[in-house]
Structure formats: C-alpha cells, structure tokens
Design a protein that fits this description.
By secondary structure, this protein is α+β, with helices and mostly antiparallel strands. It has 3 domains: 113 residues, Jelly Rolls, CATH 2.60.120.10; 146 residues, no CATH class; 152 residues, Heat Shock Protein 90. Helices cover 54% and strands 20% of the residues. The strands form 4 sheets. It has a 5-stranded mixed beta sheet with strand order 10-12-13-15-14, covered by helices on one side. A 4-stranded antiparallel beta sheet has the order 1-8-3-6. A 4-stranded antiparallel beta sheet has the order 2-7-4-5, with no helix packed on it. The longest helix has 73 residues. The radius of gyration is 35 Å and the shape is elongated. 32% of the residues are buried.
C-alpha cells in the first residue's frame, strides 16, 4: 500500500493528543513517518532497542512474549491508539515482540524526536507517565513470576536429579534383598534335612554372628587387596566341595573371613556346609543392602529437608534466618549443576554472624541468582568463594568467582530489568534486577558488583535490624 499525505486529522483520533491544538499536533505530524504493515509482519522484536513511538491509525498490533522459542500473547493494541512511549522514555529494551494482526496503518516517530516531543508537550507527558506505573507494574510482576517459575524449575530439576540416584539405589537394594531373604528363609529347612544337631546349630549361629561383627568393624580394602582375598577364599570354597563357591566369595571375603573360618563352618555343618555358607553370605549381603537402603533414604530425607528449608515451608513469610543455612541449602538445590563440573566451592563463613529477621524464601532466591550466575560464568572449571562477615550493623555476603569477568560495557547494565547476555527467547535474564529489588526494597539493604578479569564479586549488605516491617 502506498503511503498517503499524513495530516493533523489523522492523529486527532488518538487520545494521547486530546489536549493539543492543531499547531502543536502539526509538530508530531512533521516528525512522523507513515507506514503500512501486512498481516503477520513484525514491527519490533523483544530485547532490542526501541525504534520509537508508534501511533496506530488503522488495524491491530499484537504484543507477544518469547518464551524458549514459543510466542505467548501479552496485549492487543487496537487503533486508534499509541504504543512504545515507555521504552522511549526509559531507554529500556522492547519487552515483547510486536506483530501486525491483519493489515495495519501506523505512524512511527523515531526515538530522539519522540523523546523531545513527549517531554516538550506537558499534556502528552502526563498521559504517558500515568501509564508507566501500571504498565511497569504489570511487566515487573510478570517477570517476577517468570523468575519464580524459573527458580522453581531449577529447584525441581535439581531435586529430581539428586533424588534419582538414592531412589534408584534403594530400589536396587530392595530388589536384591528379596533374593537374600529367600536364602535366609530356606536355611532352617536345609539344616533339618541334613540332621544338624542343636549344638552344631548353636555353633553355626555363633559363626554367623562372628561374621556379621567382623563385617561391621572392618574398613574397606583397596581394590587389589580385596581381589586377592576373594581369590583365596574362592579356592578354599572349591576345596571344600562347593562348586558354586564363587557366589559367596565376595561377601565372605569382604567381612575378612578366611579358610580357617570356613573349616570351622564345615566342622559344625557337616553335610549342610553349602547351606551354612550361603546362609552366612546372605546375612552379610542383606546387612549391607539394608545399610545401603538406610543411606539412600537418609539422603532423600536430607534433600527434602533442604528444599523445605530453602522454601521456608511451614513457616511464616518473615522468619529468623541463618544466612549460612540459606547458602548451604541453595548449594544443595543447585548441586546438580555442580556435580559434573570441576568447580570448587570455597566457604569463608563468619560463624559468629548473628541471625537476621528476614523473608527467608526471598533471600534464598537472591542466593540462587548469584550462585547460578557464578556457575554459568565459570562453565566447567573454576572457584566460587562465598564469604560472610559483619560490618557495623550489617551482615555482608560476598559471592565471588574467578571467571573471565564482566565486560565494562556490560557491567553498568547487569541490574537493569530484563537485561540478559543470552539470545532472544533463551532466558528471562540474569535475575539480578529481581535480586537487587529483594535486597533493597524488601530488606533495605544493598547489592553491588565489582568485576575484572579473573575476579567478579557480588556483595549483599543486609541490616541486622528487622527491616521487613
């Protein structure tokens, strides 16, 4: 479509200009460029700098967010209306993708001219400013919700990953335990069938207890020593006539049992030697499996406890907070990100640091953002140093990494809303705007950063007095 001659009458229908006279409005006409968009054509892209103020004369512009490559509708701007003034005035990146929903006729005034015109016409400036607070509030709330969901996703993924190993171990141990219990339950029948006397049975029970006590007190051997002990016991079992002796050698050798012990079993068991050896080996194996199940379930319980502590479940919004406990539970939640790296976490804690009265769950979100960014900055190797101290009436937490540092041209922007070093649609940002807002607005503290190649430090200052009221 060919552009016509733009007139004052074209812009008069837009409420932004209700209080301007024709002479004032003519300045806007002179600065504007009329444009036509076909259905589906993109006007502006999320994350990029503003192209200017858009005055929609005909048609509809759909604003959409980009979520991991997916488009989600945010708002519809139906003519006659205006959009884009907030990025012009705040110099923030465009918060969403703007796309024509059907054919659109509009006027675009570039950033510099739009800024001068908005500021130069008080009625227009008042209208724009009246919209900034509710719009920014909606955008901020939406981004906070996204970051909370991202944190929840990180926590859920980490918990699932960390729970999988002990759960799988417990499942394997329980399955193997069933086999050993079958052997244990059939042993008495074998002893009866072999005619084992009461005195011999008591001797076998004593030998079983001896084996269990030896296993409980024994420290693990090196792989080479364990293999040698197993080979020797396997030979002794074969010499005793146990064709399947190899099945029991590992469990018996692991308890430190030898050929002399086996000879005592033979003497007591007589014709039930294999049943007695299988019984003792099953007892040892079952004991080890039970210990594995206990260890696995304790690990799962610890993980669930860490998540409850992380989220301060079953507690109020404002609680007494041990900063070190919050840092440690956050490291547990992020453990899956550290597990397969060579990143070392160094703790330099001042254990005399007083507890804080704070919103514990929100502070843990701060630690999550800082530590997650540090892990991302290091990649596969490096050191993260977490230090705490008291300075005056404040608790200070430093999260430092020895990564490449933040480029100077980026450093001043890391706390900007929606700022990210990732591509469009690849993330919600560094989370640092939310972190600073939690520290400053919710706890009356401060969050700052210093960076150079080889060292980046984020410092959180939190008043020791209750500032949450």
């Amino acid at each position: 479509m060919a552009a016509g001659v733009l007139t004052v009458a074209d812009l008069r229908s837009i409420d932004l200009f209700d209080e301007l006279d024709d002479e004032q409005l003519a300045r806007w006409v002179a600065a504007g460029e009329e444009r036509h968009l076909a259905s589906g054509e993109t006007l502006e892209r999320a994350g990029q700098g503003s192209a200017g103020l858009h005055l929609i004369l005909e048609g509809t512009i759909q604003m959409m967010s980009v979520e991991d490559g997916r488009l989600e509708p945010l708002a519809r701007h139906v003519a006659p209306t205006w959009m884009g003034a907030i990025p012009v005035l705040t110099e923030m990146p465009v918060p969403g993708l703007m796309r024509a929903d059907g054919d659109v006729r509009l006027v675009t005034i570039d950033v510099d001219d739009a800024y001068e015109l908005i500021v130069g016409h008080r009625p227009v400036f008042r209208r724009v400013m009246a919209q900034i607070r509710p719009v920014m509030s909606r955008i901020t709330q939406r981004e906070q919700n996204r970051e909370r969901l991202a944190s929840l996703g990180t926590m859920a993924a980490g918990l699932a990953h960390e729970l999988n190993n002990p759960a799988a171990a417990a499942r394997r141990s329980a399955s193997a335990m069933c086999e050993e219990l079958a052997i244990l339950s059939s042993t008495i029948g074998h002893f009866v069938a072999a005619g084992v006397s009461r005195d011999d049975a008591e001797q076998l029970v004593a030998l079983q207890r001896e084996a269990l006590d030896a296993a409980a007190d024994r420290t693990a051997l090196s792989a080479l020593d364990a293999a040698d002990a197993e080979d020797e016991l396997r030979d002794a079992l074969e010499d005793a006539g146990l064709a399947d002796g190899w099945k029991y050698a590992e469990a018996l050798a692991g308890a430190g049992l030898d050929a002399a012990w086996l000879a005592r079993v033979q003497a007591a068991a007589d014709g039930a030697t294999e049943a007695a050896v299988a019984w003792v080996a099953a007892s040892l194996t079952a004991s080890g499996l039970a210990a594995q199940i206990v260890d696995s379930t304790e690990r799962m319980s610890q993980l669930v406890g860490a998540v409850k502590s992380y989220a301060y479940m079953d507690q109020g919004d404002v609680v007494e907070v041990d900063v070190h406990e919050g840092l440690e539970t956050t490291l547990v939640v992020l453990g899956h990100k550290l597990k397969h790296t060579r990143i070392e976490v160094v703790r330099e804690y001042d254990r005399d640091l007083p507890h804080l009265i704070a919103r514990g769950g929100e502070l843990n979100q701060v630690w999550t953002n800082l530590l997650d960014n540090a892990i991302g900055a290091l990649g596969e190797t490096g050191t993260i140093t977490i230090s705490t101290r008291q300075e005056g009436d404040c608790a200070v937490v430093d999260v430092a990494d020895d990564g490449p540092g933040i480029p100077p041209e980026v450093l001043d922007r890391v706390f900007d809303p929606f700022f990210t070093t990732k591509g469009v649609g690849e993330g919600t940002g560094l989370g640092l705007d939310t972190a600073r807002r939690i520290v400053q607005e919710r706890h009356r503290g401060s969050l700052s950063v210093a960076s150079e190649p080889g060292r980046t430090v984020f410092s959180v200052w939190l008043p020791l007095a209750d500032t949450t009221r």
